[in-house]
Amino acid sequence: MQILHHLFQVGGSLSGLTHTNQRDPFDDANVYVLQAEEQLLLFDCGNGETLEQIFTNMKYWGLSPEAISTCFITHPHWDHAGAAHLLQKRGVRLIAHAKTADAIQAGDERCCGFLYHKQFIPCEIDETVEDGQIISLGGIDIKAIHLPGHTMGCTAFAVETEGKRLVFSGDVIGTLGYGDFGWDGSIDFDKQSYLESLLKFSRMDFDIMLPGHGLIYFDHPRRRVEECLNQALIQWR
Ligand SMILES: [Zn+2]
């Protein structure tokens, strides 16, 4: 699904772009591809069982899976990061926050395999990023924004391209038309951190928010964050 001239959504079971036998609309997260000159950057990679579907979708849009250089991972949950070990075998460089890297390298309950009755296959992350750090690839700057709470490693990635400010936000904000939270059952879920992250996120402004599941927010995405902050302040104190 083409979003901008150089931005595509190529995976996501809630959007029907990928599917598994479990018929769970949340078992495969949104996967985005950004063209950065000759290389392709992936944001999250799905659960692993859908990687071939993602590649088929990419080819439909004229995007070669061989051109994927890097995958930025928002957090270690199976539906977002289960394919990381497969990409690594193909020579793709994996980038994530240190807390996400630690979970993916352990492959433990922080990766939520149990939630899907799956075994998370661990792998090494090639490069860790800290809050505010900028990675430059193919003429594009990708800025990490650490937003812990849904998991302690949750990280959004901000990019400016085609005159628009984008943010790949993972599961920080939910999928409904108004502000709602990411799932709160993670073993490293933390309300206080989540509140602080929502406050921090609400002070930032973007043109397009690309979440981990469901609809892309083209219209005032900050309002969704503010609504979510409001709900969190009411419910979590
Ligand atoms: Zn998640």
Q: Class by helix and strand content?
A: alpha/beta
Q: Overall pLDDT, averaged?
A: 95
Structure summary, number of beta strands: 12
Sequence of strands across the biggest β-sheet: 1-2-3-4-5-6-7
Helix content: 10-25%
Strand fraction band? 25-35%
Which molecules other than protein and nucleic acid are bound? zinc ion
Total DSSP helices: 6
So what's the overall shape? Answer: globular
Largest sheet: 7 strands, mixed
Q: Which regions are unreliable across 5 or more consecutive residues at pLDDT < 50?
A: none
Separation of the first and last Cα atoms: 40 Å
Radius of gyration: 16 Å
Order of helices and strands: EEEEHEHHEHEEEEEHEH
Considering the chains and any ligands shown, give keywords for the structure.
237 residues; 6 helices; 24% helix
What's the helix and strand layout?
Elements (H helix, E strand, L loop, with lengths): L1 E3 L2 E5 L19 E6 L2 E5 L7 H10 L7 E5 L5 H4 L2 H6 L3 E5 H9 L20 E3 L4 E4 L2 E7 L8 E7 L2 E7 L20 H12 L5 E4 L9 H15 L2
Parallel strand pairs: 4-5, 5-6, 6-7, 11-12
Antiparallel strand pairs: 1-2, 2-3, 3-4, 8-9, 9-10, 10-11
Helix pairs in contact: 5-6
This protein binds zinc ion.
Summarize the structure in words:
- It is a single chain.
- By secondary structure, this protein is of the alpha/beta class.
- The chain is built from 6 helices and 12 strands.
- The protein has helices spanning 51-60, 78-81, 84-89, 98-106, 191-202, 221-235, and strands spanning 2-4, 7-11, 31-36, 39-43, 68-72, 93-97, 127-129, 134-137, 140-146, 155-161, 164-170, 208-211.
- The strands form 2 sheets. The chain has a 7-stranded mixed sheet. The protein has a 5-stranded mixed sheet with strand order 8-9-10-11-12, with no helix packed on it.
- α5 packs antiparallel against α6 (221-235).
- The longest helix has 15 residues, at 221-235.
- The structure holds zinc ion (ZN).
- Residues 75, 77, 150, 171, 182-183 line the site of zinc ion.
